[in-house]
Amino acid sequence: MVLNYIWIAFFLIAFVVALLRLLFLQDLEIFPNLVNATFDYARTGFEISLGLTGVLTLWLGFMKIAEKGGMIQLMTRAIGPFFNRLFPDLPKNHPAYGSMMMNLAANMLGLDNAATPMGLKAMKEMQTVNPHKESASNPQIMFLVLNTSGLTIIPISIMVYRAQFGAANPADIFLPILLATFFSTLAGVLTVSLVQGIKLYDKVILSYLGGLTAAVGALIWGLSQLERDQLQVVSLLIANLTLFGFITLFIVRAMLKKVNVYEAFVEGGKEGFGIAIKIIPYLIAILVAIGVFRASGAMDYLIDGVAWLFAHLGVDTRFVDALPTALMKPLSGSGARGMMIDALETFGVDSFAGRLASIVQGATDTTFYIIAVYFGSVGIRRTRYAVGCGLIADFTGIVAAILLGYLFFA
User: What is the pLDDT of residues 308-348, one digit of tens each?
Assistant: First the structure.
């Protein structure tokens, strides 16, 4: 229901802003631009879905190998005590736990393309025990908010972009992004737990979270010992070695279990095409709404208004140059990436605005895109409180990113 109102608001605000520009600024191109945006973003949505087909086929094939070889069950048992408390409505040893763990691990390593198919598989598996098929269940909402909060240990893609633009140290945003996503994830988990009545003050939850924190701390310490020009190379190596290590482990385990690995891969891969086709209307719906909102100029006016407000409050407004990335991030991952690249080009990759835009880009994930794709893949129409909790996580991550940007680079 919330997403429905937001979707309508995008179009109505775009129409009103465009009409005002036509009447008072004599902007005769504004409505053709709006119409063109609908076609452009519809094509973009289809192309994204088409691009996902290959990735979904690949990773759902590997996940089927893991399932038949018993790896999913092993991972489920390993993470079970923690997830049983974080997802109390999901049965113990449910196969969704393994898919969720793989999805969150890929997200933490900054491997978005690998995370999406595993997240879609987890959502599909949770849907099997969802009593109300068109309404998001509590476990599905918790999992979705964990995704939208975007906990990232190694922000590979952002470091690659910064390197392409000639940053003196492409990895200098590593620690700020890690801290920003930590606060975003913590806010998301606390918010959903509060709504669902989950007690976080539990020795099992605290022990798992403590262990994760210690592991992250050890990783930060180890990477901090490297020379700056080595950090990106080593981070990229760790992420991809970990991921391919999982793939190899899946195959070896299945081989030892006498599984026909090739046929298992093909069987799982067949699911990818169906899921990619199913998400097309949901993805196009949200991207077109975002597109007309941008094309109308409403986004620019919003940013200018924020800058004016903070300037009159006597607050340093240098963060405003990175605000387009921050405002676009919950709406569109590709749009936010485009805004970040624009900031790198306009202000310089090593400028305050360039660094802050990079931190914001990595601070959280794309709430509306994830909701459209993940819930759309299983036919969920009623998102309940998922949008609100996701946006709280986004807001926390963005605010943390801005404050950390000033702390590290101002």
Answer: 898 888 888 899 889 888 988 887 776 787 778 878 878 89
Residue 38, classified by CB atoms within 10 Å of its CB into exposed (0-12), middle (13-18) or buried (19+), is middle
3-state SS of 333-377?
A: HHHHHHHHHHHHHHHCCCCHHHHHHHHHHHHCCCHHHHHHHHHHC
Phi, psi of 129 (to 5 degrees): -115, 15
Pick the closest to residue 357 from 321, 392, 407, 330 (CA basis): 321
Alpha-carbon span 76 to 181, nearest angstrom: 25
Task: Calculate helix-pair angle for 2-25, 261-295, nearest 10 degrees.
Answer: 40
pTM across the whole model: 0.76
DSSP string, 23-43: HHH--TTHHHHHHHHHHHHHH
How far CA 64 is from CA of 58, 120, 395, in Å, comes to 10, 13, 36
Burial label for 314, CB within 10 Å (0-12, 13-18, 19+), is: exposed
Please report the pLDDT score of residue 112 as a whole number.
62
For the chain, domain boundaries:
25-409
CB 205, CB 190: distance < 8 Å: no
DSSP label at residue 124? H
Contacts of 90 (CB under 8 A, 6+ apart): 83, 84, 96, 97, 126, 129, 139
**What contacts 212, CB < 8 A, 6 or more positions away?**
none
Query: Helix H segments across 109-202?
Result: 112-127, 138-149, 156-164, 174-196
Distance separating alpha carbons of residues 218 and 223, to the nearest angstrom: 9
Please state the rounded mean pLDDT for residues 247-251: 90
Q: What is the dihedral angle through the alpha carbons of 331, 46, 128, 72, rounded to the nearest 10 degrees?
A: -90
Closest C-alpha to 361, from 101, 75, 161? 161
β partners of residue 320: none
Residue in 330, 159, 322 with CA at minimum distance from that of residue 232 = 159
Residues ≥6 apart with Cβ < 8 Å to 248 = none
Calpha distance 360→399 (Å, rounded) = 9
Q: Is the pLDDT of residue 291 over 80?
A: yes
- Of 45 and 142, the one with more pLDDT: 142
